[in-house]
Protein: HTH-type transcriptional regulator
Amino acid sequence: MTDENKLPGMKLTPISERFILHWGEMGSRWGVNRTVAQIHALLYLLGRPVPAEEIAETLGVARSNVSTSLKELQSWGLAKVVHVMEDRRDHFETSTDIWELFKLIVEGRRRREIDPTLTMLRDSLTSPEIENESRATEQRVRETLEFLETLTTWSDEMLRMKPDTLMKTLGLGAKISKTMRRTKS
Structure:
């Protein structure tokens, strides 16, 4: 593409740039590729369909990196392809509903991280090899399984709630926690 035909990236405001850079840093800490997180942040802030070329130009990353990152976001359900009238290119967008995004991320992490751990723990406890372990090891495996099952049951219930109900529940939980801390003092 010649410079005159090159798509100009949009100019980010200082706040948008700070948000996108920070989201990329946080993504790295959560085990997500920095560029993947930055592209998600850009799509979230823009709230409109964006072609991959514009994403690459705006963030100053290679088009191939954008393609790979968009595929990862799509695998998480965090980006989808949309089409725009009179433009043959694929455009990409993400939800601007923070609760929907939170649910998608929690469900994705559970599917990739928690569910395999639950399977391994259950399989370990039903394996004949468990008899070769000490009672202490067996007990720790059992306690870990019980903890993760309780945690996933609780998170499933929270994710079924409507956002306003969940916010009220979280607020109530914070009040209960504060009260409990005060009574222990």
